Amino acid sequence: MNFEHLPHPAPVPADTRDSAIADPGFGKLFTDHMVSIDYDEGQGWHSATLGPRGPIALDPAASVLHYAQEIFEGMKAYRLADGTMALFRPQANAARFNKSAARLAMPAIPEELFIEAVRQLVLKDQDWFPSVDGGALYIRPFMFATEAFLGVRPAKQYKFLVILSPAGNYFKSGSPAVSVWVSDYTRAAPGGTGEAKCGGNYAASLVPTGEAFAKGHDQVVFLDAAERKWIEELGGMNLFFVFDDGRMITPPLRGTILPGITRDSILTLAREQGLDVAEEMYSIDQWRADAESGKLVETMACGTAAVVTAVGKVASHDGEFTIGSGGPGQLTGAIREKLVGIQRGTVEDTHGWVMKLG
Ligand SMILES: *Cc1c(COP(=O)(O)O)cnc(C)c1O
Question: Domains of the chain: which residue ranges?
């Protein structure tokens, strides 16, 4: 498919942009352009454009506004030492996007088209790459139902957009270890949409996340909805638990956990290093008991936005406990370094995970 390039009447002046990308924060700064592709039943995907980023007109009856037919992805573009822009496992994001689409009764987008849209936009706006240490261009591809129709059935028209946000540290504190709140709310029930990356899951997580913030924590931990016992994941990150004998576990996906690409990459790297790693259910009571006995030495949270972060403190209605020293542990640091190294091209990529653009 050909992308029509629409000229930008007034891109951000270079000096304004350069001061903005020196301190981008997370998710509040955006680049000049976006990609837009439309879908109509019968016609399929059409009208791909790479043009100025700006507001979009929607009919007030657009079904996304009423029934939340919306999905998204989160990925990053990195700049390698030689200046080349690169993506990390974009095929995995494209495949997951289409799985989310299937669960939300939305059309699939060809993986090559998804990746091509991302590639063109990143190359177009690469001057927005943040100048801060650890910075990246955060990429947000998303799709939503645009058809004006209030009956309840899958829409017949959709829009796929990609926007870019120069990003620094995900956690405000930039702290070496985060503090988490175990919520009484649940995020995903068996048979629900927990494994789809859809806006609706996040809408339902805002009250529990707000509660965690109000209590002074950085993130919320969700337990399973059926037994309120098994640890599932954070609001937007997967979890790994590390024991004093070197063993490492992460909760199995079971349909209620978002299949993180960072999670999958860590499983691969850990197995390859000969670590004893398993996908295994782990209860909140065991988490506390193991942290208190010293059997559990580290807990790490992982996701594209923050990569790998140590969990230092856990709080719930039953009180608080600390993990290890409360700071980042050894294995968390080592895995983070390895993964970040592969993403940024300073550690050899033996899996073909890095896709160079340009
Ligand atoms: C996106 C996401 C993750 C992390 O997935 P990555 O592919 O590693 O970025 C974890 N949990 C939830 C709920 C998510 O939406």
Answer: 4-167, 177-344
